[in-house]
Design goal:
This protein has 232 residues and is α/β, with parallel strands linked by helices. The protein is 34% helix and 19% strand. A hairpin with a 5-residue loop joins β2 (32-39) and β3 (45-47).
């Protein structure tokens, strides 16, 4: 069965990366939620996609108690996603404005999950190989995945070998990259394929028919209906 992950929560129905969006995803029947985490100036984890807040302040320059009330802490987001699989995307790629080569955010995510005594179903992903590599180093039992943008077939084979060798459980490619070749190579290597971000029901149905393990979507209710499941 192809799982449905609500992208930043049910972000077509509620503001993205908010408790309301995560709860809406659960009501719609999503299997999981994808959310984004960035570090704050005092070493906190704020659930927000962009490197700057809506008022223009860099997330990395403000304390966790200074972020707007609609921006949850990681713990609040996880609580709101109880019962769902949570794809925690660590926002610390080398091209990010707030890139931290020390990977402090990966350390914080691992500590936060450990402090919650394993009650969360989580997979940690990132475009930054250093971030997911650090998670693997600190918590080898914690599932991790590498996010990728559009790839050519020539890039796929070597990358899949690297991802599998690094101990990750999944590849999270852009949906335009998903081909029978990529899926076959990933599955042969023991990697799941969760693809992003796809809202068109025909495309969702086609990806499921190809054999993707999960789709990340802004419209989990639409995706569930496209897959012949009961969307809310």
């Amino acid at each position: 069965m192809t799982l449905v992950y609500a992208h930043r929560g049910a972000s077509a129905a509620e503001p993205e990366n908010t408790v309301a969006a995560f709860r809406a995803a659960a009501r719609m029947g999503a299997d999981g939620v994808e959310l984004d985490v960035r570090r704050t100036a005092d070493g906190g984890a704020a659930v927000v996609h962009d490197a700057t807040l809506a008022d223009g302040r860099p997330v990395a320059a403000v304390r966790l108690d200074q972020v707007p009330p609609e921006v949850p802490r990681l713990e609040e987001a996880l609580d709101a996603c109880a019962g769902l699989v949570v794809n925690v995307e660590v926002k610390n790629a080398p091209w990010d404005a707030d890139f931290d080569p020390e990977e402090a955010l990966a350390d914080l995510v691992v500590r936060t999950l450990a402090d919650r005594d394993g009650r969360d179903q989580v997979i940690v992903s990132s475009f930054g190989e250093g971030a997911v590599g650090r998670v693997r180093q600190l918590a080898p039992a914690l599932p991790t995945a590498l996010l990728t943008a559009v790839l050519t077939d020539d890039q796929v084979d070597g990358l899949i070998e690297e991802v599998a060798a690094a101990g990750h459980v999944a590849l999270h490619p852009h949906h335009l990259t998903v081909t029978p070749h990529l899926l076959g190579r990933c599955h042969d290597a023991g990697l799941a394929v969760n693809t992003w971000t796809v809202d068109d029901p025909d495309r969702i149905h086609a990806l499921a028919a190809l054999g993707v393990d999960g789709v990340v979507t802004d419209v989990p209710d639409v995706a569930l209906r496209a897959l012949g499941r009961s969307g809310g």
